[in-house]
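Reviewer comment 2.1 asked that we show a complete input and output for one of the modelled complexes. We chose the 1,6-di-O-phosphono-beta-D-glucopyranose case, as it is the one discussed in the main text.
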Amino acid sequence: MMEIEAIIYDLDGVITDTAEYHYLAWKALADELNISFDRSFNEQLKGLSRVDSLELILQQSHQTYTAEEKRQLAEKKNEHYQELIQKVSPNDLLPGVELFMKEVKQAGIKTGLASASKNAQTVIERLQVTNLLDTVVDAAKVERGKPDPEVFVTAAKQLGVPTAHCVGIEDASSGVKAIKAAGMYAVGIGKEKYLAEADWVIPDTSHLGLNSLEMKISEDNQA
Ligand code: B16
Ligand code: MG
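Response of the prediction step:
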């Protein structure tokens, strides 16, 4: 039976819905460039780094962009995104998440943040959950983005916990892949069709609970 020693959270789409702000900022940029972009396309971008997201969007265009133009476009999206996240407050915590994070802390389980976002520190400060996280991986120091496991493996290392004793929580398909590649137990939040590789899929964060998680893990063990 796997004993949970650490829980490692993704940020966007798990702790808060900045995914919506990323969507709005990319949508504005795509509109400006006359590139079609909708919420379904945006699903693929969740969890991907800023440059990887931009590359996917620009692939939809017939035009070619120089490296300098791409840098400027990524910067423009980020400036818009940073404006949007000024509004983030503890009211933006997703349902049940703070309660779950507190439950986990009280159980003596270590916690970490494995976000691909270079704005993660700002967001968790605005949400006032910094004290519920024992470690935060600096996305700027991670070389390979999700689906590579690097960001989750780094968080586990920083916590001093073997990855086999970690649970990762993600809303994105690329993130679930990263958790599985790290050798962790994966909880997926969202639609089964995007998150089929997760060990446990729940429709939204209000379903998070330490007891249900432990029960699911023990069920999986018996299966
Ligand atoms: P930034 P996560 C990811 O955060 C987002 O899901 C993804 O949409 C975004 O492109 C990426 O962060 C980079 O964010 O532009 O702020 O560096 O889900 O890994 O917490
Ligand atoms: Mg996410």
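Residues 19 and 213 are 24 Å apart (CA to CA). We note this here for comparison with the apo prediction described in Section 3.2.
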